[in-house]
Design goal:
The complex is a heterodimer of chains A (444) and B (339). By secondary structure, chain A is of the alpha/beta class. Chain A is built from 14 helices and 17 strands. In chain A, the strands form 4 sheets. Chain A has a 6-stranded mixed sheet. Chain A has a 4-stranded antiparallel sheet with strand order 2-8-7-4, with no helix packed on it. A 4-stranded parallel sheet of chain A has the order 11-10-9-12, sandwiched between helices. Chain A is globular and about 65 Å long. The longest helix of chain B has 28 residues. The chains are: A alpha/beta (444), B alpha+beta (339).
């Protein structure tokens, strides 16, 4: 019996159509747009101005706040402008626009493809290096990684848990990474274990990727303390709290962090980025992006430099944009629809998903029939139908009592609702109102 | 059996008498003396409990007013000046007049002016849509058309126009501020109704530069400052590529409406202009720096003497108001709690 998390969960159709497509390296665009805020937290401050010449790997924006991350130039070239440009939601955000020239790397970056196994740095130096390289959680939440590794006094970490679950349907970027960059990733895990001063690590991989599990098990046998756990396919197993529950049978209490149950969770993509940063001195300037969906002729996985326009990816994958009704940044469950394709790939872009016209529109909302399916599938044990009513009413106090802030916005309730009620949308309204109320209260 | 009833009667009467005495003394001891005027004022108020005055309800408003013993800073937008005048003998203080106000929508990004670039498929709730995207028209400052302001209106003074996709404020608006608070993009503003309900305002909140603003909406304020330059009364300020007309300073001369290249400045309830009225070409007042709102006005020639009348436009006799239309704009010291 394979392990999985104990409360709720759904199993959407997997549709991993790009699983067998090897990672292709994407060409460079003519002009790259690098947003200064690609992470959760305070936006970084731009260090360059119009007309400056930047080299590949040079730091161009500095994250000064505690929860913030540095941004490095993914290309060589002249800064065309530093101005507000459209982001994927249609709002304008500050970005650095670079006219791309042939690569001229910063000094000290190791570009050879040889594996470097020895870890020379001390734990403190590792965390510092992660901070400097601007590494954020590559699973999509883009939480700055170094913050997780600054373990407060009195907290003890026992396990490092690596998230290779990729529970979102369609997406295959982590799958391909585990298959093709498994060795590098494993060294990255060893680095993280040293940085965290733990000797136990569990890699959770869902059972729909048997090739990746076999490959990782093979590599892990060479390392001490790293084990690979095959998990039952269940969405949202990639959620931090769900993954801890699945592999360790520990539940993170409401409002607490994984640290409180002795865990730190990282994505496989983050491990690869850490390897590149620590062993090769290469900051986070590229990532793997899946381009997939029914209107895509060649569902593919690309190694893309940050700042490359999504348009280019779609053209290379021969996507029929006209035939698609919706283009989603991320997976079908948690991703957000793009307003325009003229947006850059950022550190958190794990996939671009095109939905065919027929499958992209929502059905008409009907009345709740109190079937309690949403309550059954909620992985956090909440009552979505109730939270929806409170959220619609914007009753922040009642929302807080009903623990709306514990919602991880996985969308299982919407997926399962037979009345096609957009539960999560209303819950998000309630969450926004409640979050604002809590912030106001703590300010007093 | 008879004796049973008698015993019960006597016992109950005794208990009643003792309780009455005890209660009498307790009532004397813990007597709450409430100003009877509070009840009188509460009765006189409309009882809408809309919160437009800034208090939790009509009674809270009455309590606060009686406690302060003044009517300065207190105003019931529903009852208006009439009501405040009628309260004045009850409280024995002078009523403070306020010009009647109305909510205006500072966006004209209708379906026609700002065509949809994509279609949004989700709950039609402005607060939520605002966090998700810039809106179908592409303007990140414009109206989302979700109608949250209409839902917030307790007076049936707003409706959504299905043709333009924008909310419309009807004439029975009492300026209770509910819609202003409801809009996540701050598009609604309370402005003076103006003499004979005439008013001029910039129907745009777009702070982008001209190019991007015009790209999304054909009637956007492009920040060209033509109105700022032409305004002879210093009523227009420019901030972040956006013009704002101060309704206290505006004399409704309509010069700005004429020069606006995108028709972003709206004039309401004016007579249609004669085909080509002679426009007295005054040389535009030179202004070097952007005058911040509320800053002292730049020195300029004294205007025609202002009427000190506290009369308000809508209540004026027709004939009189027609004559002194221009002078109506009186120098009132009323505070406006909205900017």
């Amino acid at each position: 019996m394979l392990k999985t998390f104990r409360i709720g969960g759904v199993h959407p159709k997997e549709n991993k159509m790009s699983a067998s497509a090897p990672i292709e390296v994407m060409e460079h665009p003519k002009r790259a747009v690098v947003p200064v805020s690609q992470h959760l937290g305070v936006p970084a401050t731009a260090l360059v101005k119009k007309g400056d010449f930047v080299k590949t790997g040079q730091m161009i924006a500095k994250g000064e706040a505690f929860i913030s991350a540095n941004v490095h130039s993914p290309f060589t070239g002249k800064v065309f402008r530093v101005e507000e440009t459209l982001d994927s939601t249609g709002f304008r955000r500050m970005a650095i626009i670079i006219d791309v020239e042939p690569d001229n790397w910063m000094e000290g970056i190791d570009l050879s493809s040889d594996l470097k196994r020895e870890i020379d740095l001390s734990p403190e130096e590792i965390v510092k290096k992660i901070h400097e390289s601007g590494i954020v959680g590559m699973g999509g939440a883009t939480f700055p990684t170094h913050v997780k590794y600054m373990v407060p006094e009195g907290k003890k970490v026992e396990y490092l848990i690596i998230n290779g679950v990729e529970c979102e349907p369609y997406l295959t970027s982590d799958h391909r990474l585990m298959l093709e960059k498994g060795e590098e990733m494993m060294i990255g895990i060893a680095i993280l274990m040293k940085g965290l001063k733990v000797n136990k690590c569990i890699i959770g991989v869902e059972n729909n990727k048997p090739d990746a599990i076999a490959h990782l098990k093979d590599i892990a046998s060479k390392y001490q303390g790293i084990s690979v756990e095959a998990l039952k396919v269940q969405y949202p197993q990639g959620g931090e709290k769900q993954l801890i529950d699945a592999v360790l049978r520990r539940q993170v209490p409401a409002g607490k962090l994984p640290l409180d149950v002795g865990c730190v969770v990282n994505n496989v993509g983050t491990c690869f980025a850490v390897y590149e940063a620590v062993q090769k001195n290469k900051p986070l300037i590229e990532r793997i992006v899946t381009v997939t969906g029914k209107p895509v002729k060649k569902p593919s996985n690309f190694m893309v430099r940050i700042g490359t326009p999504v348009d280019m990816l779609l053209a290379k994958a021969e996507a029929d944009v006209e035939a698609s009704g919706k283009i989603i940044n991320g997976g079908p469950m948690m991703g957000k629809a793009l307003v325009t394709t003229d947006v850059p790939v950022t550190k958190g872009t794990s996939g671009i998903l095109l939905m065919a016209k027929a499958e992209s529109n929502r059905n008409e909302e009907q009345n709740c029939i109190r079937c309690s399916k949403c309550t059954t599938v909620c992985p956090q044990g909440l009552e979505p139908h109730l939270l929806k009513i409170l959220g619609k009413r914007m009753d922040a106090e009642a929302c807080e009592v009903e623990r709306i802030m514990d919602c991880i916005e996985c969308g299982s309730c919407v997926y399962t609702c037979p009345a096609q009620i957009p539960l999560l949308d209303y819950i998000r309204i309630g969450k926004a109102k409640t979050g604002a109320m809590i912030r106001n209260r703590s300010r007093k | 059996m008879d004796s049973g009833i008698i015993t019960a009667l006597i016992t109950l009467s005794a208990i009643g008498a003792v309780a009455a005495v005890v209660l009498y003394f307790i009532a004397q001891k813990f007597k709450v003396i409430e100003d009877p005027r509070i009840d009188d004022v509460t009765d006189a108020l409309p009882g809408a409990n809309c919160g437009g005055c800034g208090y939790a309800g009509c009674r809270a408003f009455a309590e606060a007013m009686v406690k302060e013993g003044t009517m300065e800073g207190f105003f019931c937008p529903v009852g208006g000046n009439d009501l405040m005048k009628s309260l004045s003998p009850l409280l024995g203080v002078e009523a403070v007049e306020k010009k009647p106000q109305i909510a205006v929508l500072r966006c004209n990004g209708s379906v026609k002016n700002s065509p949809a670039k994509y279609s949004y498929d989700g709950p039609n709730n402005c607060t939520f849509t605002h966090t998700l995207s810039s809106g179908e028209g592409g303007c990140m400052y414009g109206c989302l058309g979700g109608g949250e302001c209409v839902d917030a209106c307790d007076f049936d003074a707003m409706y959504m126009d299905p043709e333009t996709g924008l909310p419309v404020v009807k004439d029975n608006c009492v300026a209770c501020n509910a819609c202003v608070l409801a809009c996540p993009r701050d598009l609604l503003e309370l402005r003076n109704r103006g003499p004979k309900d005439k008013r001029i305002f910039v129907a745009c909140m777009n702070q982008e530069k001209g190019g991007p603003a015009k790209k999304n909406c054909s009637v956007a304020c492009i920040g060209c400052a033509a109105c700022f330059k032409v305004c002879p009364h210093d009523a227009i300020t420019m901030n972040n590529n956006l013009a704002y007309i101060d309704y206290e300073k505006c004399t409704l001369c309509r010069k700005c409406v004429e020069v606006c290249p995108t028709d972003a400045i709206h004039e309401i309830n004016f007579k249609p202009r004669p085909p080509k009225a002679e426009v007295p070409k005054k040389e535009p007042v030179k202004k070097a720096v952007v005058v911040e709102e509320g800053a002292a006005p730049a020195p300029k020639p004294a205007k025609a003497p202002r009427t000190e009348s506290v009369e308000v436009a809508v209540e004026k006799p027709k004939a009189a108001s027609e004559a002194s239309d221009k002078k109506e704009e009186n120098s009132s010291e009323n505070q406006n709690n909205n900017q």
